[in-house]
Amino acid sequence: MNASTPRGPAHRPRHGTEHPTENGTEYGTGRSDAARRRAVFLLATWSLMAREMLRFVRQRNRVIGAIGTPLLFWVLLGAGIGRSFRPPGLGGSMGFMEYFFPGTLLLVVLFTAIFASISVIEDRNAGFLQGVLVAPVPRLAIVLGKVLGGAGLGFGQGLLLVLLGPLAGLSYGIGQFLGAALVMALTAMALSAFGFLLAWRTDSVQGFHAVMNLLMVPMWLLSGAFFPASGAALWVRVVMAANPLSYSMAALRHVLYPPMVSEGLGDPPLWAALLVLLAFTGAALALAALQARRASG
């Protein structure tokens, strides 16, 4: 045997000393791998979110539909019903235009969530979604990108509409404005995630519209946006109490109106409304992420 040939364990190279790389990855770079995965996650989320926003803004008919329809409802219904509206517990001190204003905010967020969720179906039909699903990005990044894009659009449009509050006879300061922004942000996240959840399992835009008209629009109608629960039939009050959007509406009234309004309308306390809204948002996001993961598995 050649004397220069290494023999025995003493001559074996230690693991990781003679070859600093293996398959292009250095040994002991766990933190680098984690940082890279985090960067991929954030980049994918941001890219999909920005794509949703740019796509929505470039389609003017969706912008007009999401903002114009709720505004039209608010002006026509508010002017038509006017002072003939007498909510129980308030003694006729509030007209319908003032009462309907938080409902209009919620409707803007709802319509935007519906229009944004349609992109899930359109992307699937165009093959874009399949391409994203086979890419080496986490499924949660796909869900968050889509949901945050729709939520950001709904939140931004609702925030602009808050500025029209004085036209409804409302007056509020910066604290109330920030409180309304928080409630709308949570509501936009919940509705966008809920829309994603429904759109993921729907094959056509027509079918999605049918589901929206059957489910999400009644959720808005039974949220207290159009009429208070205090004057409704018992079974309607039960349904409204089980509707998560009722608590979003109650939270908006708490931050936009004086305390006597929420007390007169029988709204739950602000802390309870925010707690239910947070639970609804978290549940919708979790179910959307779980469904996307199962579909890819």
Concise account of the structure shown:
Strand 1 (21-22) and strand 2 (25-26) form a beta hairpin.
Task: Describe what this molecule looks like in 3D.
There is one protein chain. This protein is mainly alpha-helical and 297 residues long. It has one domain. It has a two-stranded antiparallel sheet with strand order 1-2. A hairpin with a 2-residue loop joins strand 1 and strand 2. It is elongated and about 65 Å long. The chain starts with 20 loop residues before the first strand and ends with a helix. 37% of the residues are buried.
Class based on secondary structure composition and strand pairing = mainly alpha
- Output the strand order for the largest sheet: 1-2
- Average the pLDDT over all residues and give the rounded result: 80
Query: Biggest sheet, in brief?
Result: 2 strands, antiparallel
Question: Which descriptor suits the 3D outline?
Answer: elongated
Q: How many domain modules?
A: 1
**Tally of separate helices:** 11
What is the C-alpha radius of gyration, as a whole number of Å?
A: 26 Å
Q: Which ranges are low-confidence, i.e. pLDDT below 50, for 5 or more consecutive residues?
A: 8-28
Would you report the number of β strands?
A: 2
Into which percentage range does the β-strand content fall? Answer: under 5%
Give the end-to-end Cα distance, rounded to a whole number of Å: 55 Å
Helix content: over 70%
Order of helices and strands: EEHHHHHHHHHHH
Please supply descriptive tags for the structure shown above.
single chain, 297 residues, mainly alpha, two-stranded antiparallel sheet, 2 strands, 1% strand
